[in-house]
Amino acid sequence: MITPLLVIVVILAIAFDYINGFHDAANSIATVVSTKVLSPFHAVLWAALFNFAAYFYFSDHKVANTVAKTVIENYITIYVILSGLIAAICWNLLTWYFGIPSSSSHTLIGGFAGAGVTNALLQGATAADALNLGYVFKIISFIVLAPVIGMVISIIITLIIVNLSRWSKPATADKWFRGLQLLSSAALSFTHGGNDAQKVMGIIYVALVASNVLSSSDPMPEWIPIVCYSAISLGTMSGGWRIIKTMGTKITKVTPLEGVAAETAGAITLGITEHFAIPVSTTHTITGAIIGVGVTKRVSAVRWGVTINLLWAWILTIPVSAILASLVYLIINIFI
Fold this sequence. Notes:
This protein has 336 residues and is mainly α. The chain is built from 13 helices and no strands. Helix 1 runs parallel beside helix 10, helix 1 runs parallel beside helix 12 and helix 8 crosses helix 9. The longest helix has 41 residues.
């Protein structure tokens, strides 16, 4: 049944999706802003448009299904979901404030898993009993694989483009790449929306199942994807200027040519992982792609000190979110 607590959880999930939008806006527009192809204002409008356009294409909800099944159904309660969302929102806002491009995806999954495990432990079960280990292993492995895949694809694309552009005059090539960067940033925003909006869709769906509004065999109500894609688009329109600075300038200097390569590589990687129902981090993916274009110039072109700090944020996101969610659940459990 629909309860006030369920309504609160759905509102928090939508709020997280909105925060995800402005937290991850830099992923798809940092390079197009840093190369001055678009102004920041026009860039966020462009990205938001394609964030929402993904709603009309990604109708299979594969990634949402993976997120929903991260925790075994027996250990999912509305309080578990509430705890996970509170932890995820807190960590996302903290990393946004300090301009750290951490993963909203892994924040949400870490919070959900941490609260689910805590619930299982309180019932005398184990962490392994609470988690669908196949899905968890897939998610954790792509913390490493997604940026590596993005980096490799961006290196290949950059080398191909550099060799082809030798046949054009520099001014002509630069003009072409500025135009192409509009397409590559659109593609990245499109796949970003398709991957990231689905994660919150999965959380809202399990909240409805946990509240007995739906059964686990029911299809996802159509209002869920519409609301989630709208929320992430509105969040993107709010920008994320602190993180844009890190993504667009601090890792390596990016030209229009390299922006096209990085964004195209990111979009391809996200498209592949969505096809295989893997909820990867858009942040990790595009960062790996940006590193890839830097490496094609020379290894020293990448500011490895900044990159190492990002790696630490990536490593810590899931365990920190899980611990925060566990603490929140324990506090909530005192009053229920």
